[in-house]
Design a protein that fits this description.
Blueprint: E1 2-11, E2 14-18, E3 26-29, H1 32-46, E4 55-61, H2 66-101, H3 106-113, H4 117-128, E5 152-155, E6 158-161
Parallel strand pairs: 1-4
Antiparallel strand pairs: 1-2, 2-3, 5-6
Helix pairs in contact: 2-3, 3-4
């Protein structure tokens, strides 16, 4: 993983990003998520890295944009919470499968793990079904689409799109 720092400013309606460590590595975009995407591309090109290189861009905002760091910290906390919830769900699934497999009743497992018996049944049956059909939206009659994957990490007052920026943002 290679990490670069990009200085981010706002000029009119556009976001400007410059990576001082790489000569000529600057770009602009109408939205911040697009700027992050472009900065990844610029870093890969300027550093002559493989197209699939794992690049992290630390965003350092102009002092004129102090609210962005605070907002990014809230977003980071939400994404961290979602990651922890995913990890807890995985751990829960493993424990439920082991306990049910060891012969404990669904009700006993539910009481021990702190979930409902119905959820224990859902977890144990989800693995038995190898293919799942996505639920359709009641309003549009279409399968709901997930938002474009993006994650931002905040460290010591700076915003950092991480390798997780390619993971799904579940917030």
């Amino acid at each position: 993983m290679t990490t670069y720092t990009a200085n981010v400013t706002r000029e009119g309606d556009d976001w400007l990003g410059d990576i001082p460590e790489l000569e000529g590595a600057s770009t602009y975009a109408a939205t911040l998520p697009r700027l992050v995407e472009y900065l990844h591309e610029v870093a890969i090109l300027a550093a002559d890295l493989p197209d699939d290189a794992d690049v992290v861009i630390d965003l350092r905002f102009d002092d004129a944009l102090p609210d962005l760091a605070a907002a990014a910290a809230v977003g980071q906390a939400r994404r961290q919470h979602a990651r922890e919830a995913d990890e807890l769900a995985e751990r829960t699934s493993g424990v439920v499968h082991r306990l049910v497999g060891d012969g404990y009743s669904v009700r006993d497992v539910a009481a021990i793990v702190g979930i409902t018996p119905g959820r224990v049944s859902q977890i144990t049956q989800a693995t038995a079904t190898t293919t799942r059909t996505p639920r359709k939206s009641a309003r549009a009659g279409k399968v709901p689409k997930r938002a474009a994957p993006r994650a931002i990490r905040v460290q010591a007052g700076r915003v950092t799109p991480s390798a997780a920026s390619r993971a799904q943002d579940k917030v």
